[in-house]
Amino acid sequence: MTRLLRSSLLVIALFLAVGIASAQVTDSIRGLHKVKKKETIFGISRMYDITIDELIEANPDMKAPGYELKKGVVLRIPYAAGQAKPARPIAEVKASADDVRNRAIRLGVMLPLHDINGDGKRMIEYYRGVLMACDSVKKLGISVDVHAWNTPEDWDIRQTLLDEAAAKCDLIIGPLYSKQMDALSAFVAKHDIKLVIPFSINAPQLNDNRHIFQIYQTQAEINEASVNLFVDQFKGFHTVIIDCNDSTSKKGPFTAGVRRQLEQRGLEYSVTSLKSGEDDFSKAFSRKKSNVVILNTARSQELGVAFSKIDGLKVVSPELNITMFGYTEWLMYNRSYLENFYKYNTYIPSTFNYNPLTPSTQRIEQNYRKNFHSDMQNRLPRLGITGFDQAYFFLRGLHKYGKTFNGAAGMLGYEPVQTPLKFERYGNGGLRNRSIVLVHYAPSHKIETIKF
C-alpha cells in the first residue's frame, strides 16, 4: 500500500518575511531591499551578512550628512567581501515554461509521519514547521504544491517511489533512515530532483550524488570547526583548561585539539582541576591578559562547580578578566546558568541557536500553538523551527535560482530563526552544511549569534 498523506496548506499567520525587490544581479550588487518600518541600517546589514560599511558603499546617498533611513527606500545589496559571485547573472538565464521559477514548486516530504513512536511524533512536528514555511513563502508570491508520504522504519521506500507524484518533485526532504537511502538516492539522480537529508543518518551516497544536500554535521566536524574558531577568536587571551574529572566525557578531542593548536602557534595555556585548592586554581589564571576558560566536559553538574570556583576566585581577585567558552549542550542549561553565562561573557559554538527571547522565535512558537493546538516538544533544537528554517531556505532558493541553487553562503538574505545553513561541495558529490555559529551571552544581558 502506498502510504501517502496529501496535505492542503494551512493559512498560517507567521512572522515577518524578508522582502527583496526583483533586480538584475550585477558583478557587485546581488539584489535590492525595500526598507520596511522600523528597519535599521545595522539590522539590514546583518540580514544579508554584510558590514555596515559595505552597505553604505553600495548606497552613496547614505554618506550624506544627517541621512535617515526611511520606509519605502530601495537599497542596493552588495556581495560581502570574499563572497562568491554567480558566474553570470541569474536574471540573464532564460527560463523555460516548466522552470521552477515560473510555477509552483513541487515539494515532497518522505519521513515517518505517524504517532506510533517518538520518531513519528518528532517528524510530525518537523513537518508542521515545513508547512508553516510553505505558507510564509506564499506571502512572497511563491506557490508550493506539497506531497507528504509516511515512510516508517519498516517501510520499503521503493513502494513510495512508484507514486507518479514523486517523480514530479523538484525537492524531496528525507529520509530519516539510512536503509532507505540507496533507492531514494538513485531515484533523485534519475529524475533530477534535489534531496535534502535533514537529520543524522549514514549517507555514503553523498560521495558521488550531486543532487544531495546533507544538513547534519558529525561531532568530529563540529569539534574541528570549534577548535579553529576558539584559537582564532581567542589567540590574544590566556587559555585555562579545567579538568573536571569526568570519565564519561566525550570532549577530549576538543580540548586535545585546542592544546595542539595552541602549542603549534606558540601560545601559552595552563591546566588546572576542579579538585585543585584555591591557591593552585588561582595560579592558572593570568593577571596580565584576559583569560578564556574551557572545561573538558559538557555536563551541568561540573559546570556548576566550575562557576562556583570562579566566583570564589573573583572575590579574591576581582581584577581578573574571565570569559567562558563552552559546548552546544550548555544551551540546555539556560534556566540554571543564564546569569553566569552573562557574567562571564560566555561563547558557545553550535550549529543552531534557539533563543526563546527573540521576537521571531516567539512569533513562530505562538503561531505553531495557534494552528496546531500544542506546543513544540521541549528539546533542542526545536524541530518545528528546524522544519521551518530548512524548508524556507530551500523554497526561496529554488524560486530565486532554479536548479542552479546550491545553498552557498550569500545566495540568500535570509536570517534564520534557529538554524543557519551554508553548503559546500563534498568532492565531486553532493553538498554538506558547514555552518557553525558562536552564541554569545554578553555581560549587557544580550544574546547574539556570530556566524562563520
UniProtKB/TrEMBL annotation:
Residues 1-23 form the signal peptide. Residues 31-77 form the LysM domain. It holds the Pfam family LysM. Keywords: Signal. It comes from the Bacteria. CDD domains: LysM. This is LysM domain-containing protein. The lineage of its organism: Bacteria, Pseudomonadati, Bacteroidota, Bacteroidia, Bacteroidales.
